[in-house]
Amino acid sequence: MIARESRNGPERRVRRLTGVRSCYETGIGVAYVGDSRDLLARLPEGSVHLVVTSPPYALEFQKEYGNASKDEYVAWLRPFAEQIHRVLRDEGSFVLNIGGSYNPGHPTRSLYHFRVLLMLCDEMGFHLAQECFWFNPAKLPAPAEWVNVRRIRVKDSVEYVWWLSKSESPKADNRNVLVPYSPDMVRLLRRGYRPKVRPSGHNITDKFRFDNGGSIPANLLECGNNESNSAYITACREFGVKPHPARFPAKLPEFYMKLLTQPGDLVVDPFAGSNTTGAVAEGLGRRWMAFESNRKYLEASKVRFGIQRRKRSAESA
């Protein structure tokens, strides 16, 4: 099982789950093939700092990676949520990316993702720390019937990201995710600012005169997901590996790892897919665990860590 933090600080390595063979490991991270309900159950209570994941959505059409129907989705996700709540530390967070969809055959939106949120808060005991939105400007217009053919709806370009916590005060520090100041703010800092009350009644104090290293980011996270020549895609081509059809954009887990964790903390993705989360955690010095039920997806994710390249070099040596 996972080692708990020592008195000298967090362990720098991730230990294996007992009785389960890993697919691969890196020293600070380990990936397992299997049902994440069973794998999560092997983790000690209160051992995880952050769970960040994007499970299969309840879409109208079945995808090759598998997805539950809207009517079944809440019941399908509930046992995973129970284990996630159990393994989280009191100051830990659960970040869930979940996309919306239309009702089958109708130009009206499903409420399944809101029912998921109510289940997580009302039944599981999570707190909604903040609702955030992933804005993907490259998202294709869909469904075609309502957007392209009948022209009665607009393109859907945002997805919900529920930031949930086990307590009302999860560990977080927005100074770790500051963004560059706008040109207007740069000019304001250069010229100086005279405190005043805006017509709206907001009192803008002299704190705006100081350069704090950047602006506090909004809860609208813009990142496209239309990679065609990324390191992952390039490596998949090199080794003849089929890429995962629905990859998690790296900027999402990166943002939340920086906001909600520190180096050495443990991050878990129970629906790892191509293991974007593990690769980001590896780069940020967070310990990580990745669970994925589809072996071919997790085997393919080895390209993110150079495992195939090292194996090829060893064989040719």
Topology:
Blueprint: E1 24-25, E2 29-33, H1 36-41, E3 48-53, H2 70-87, E4 88-98, H3 112-123, E5 127-135, H4 144-149, E6 158-165, H5 183-191, E7 196-197, E8 203-204, E9 220-222, H6 231-238, H7 251-260, E10 266-269, H8 276-284, E11 287-292, H9 295-300, H10 307-316
Parallel strand pairs: 2-11, 3-4, 3-10, 5-9, 10-11
Antiparallel strand pairs: 1-2, 4-6, 5-6, 7-8
Strand order of the largest sheet: 1-2-11-10-3-4-6-5-9
Please, how many domains? 2
* CATH-defined superfamily of the largest domain: Vaccinia Virus protein VP39
In helices, the fraction of residues equals 25-40%
End-to-end separation in angstroms reads: 36 Å
Give the CA-based shape: globular
Would you kindly provide a written description of the structure presented here, covering whatever features stand out?
With 317 residues, the protein is of the alpha/beta class. 30% of the residues lie in helices and 18% in strands. The protein has helices at 36-41, 70-87, 112-123, 144-149, 183-191, 231-238, 251-260, 276-284, 295-300, 307-316, and strands at residues 24-25, 29-33, 48-53, 88-98, 127-135, 158-165, 196-197, 203-204, 220-222, 266-269, 287-292. The strands form 2 sheets. A 9-stranded mixed beta sheet has the order 1-2-11-10-3-4-6-5-9, with helices on both faces. The protein has a two-stranded antiparallel ribbon with strand order 7-8. The longest helix is centred in the N-terminal third of the chain and has 18 residues, at 70-87.
Provide a concise account of the structure shown.
This protein is α/β, with parallel strands linked by helices and 317 residues long. It has ten helices and eleven strands.
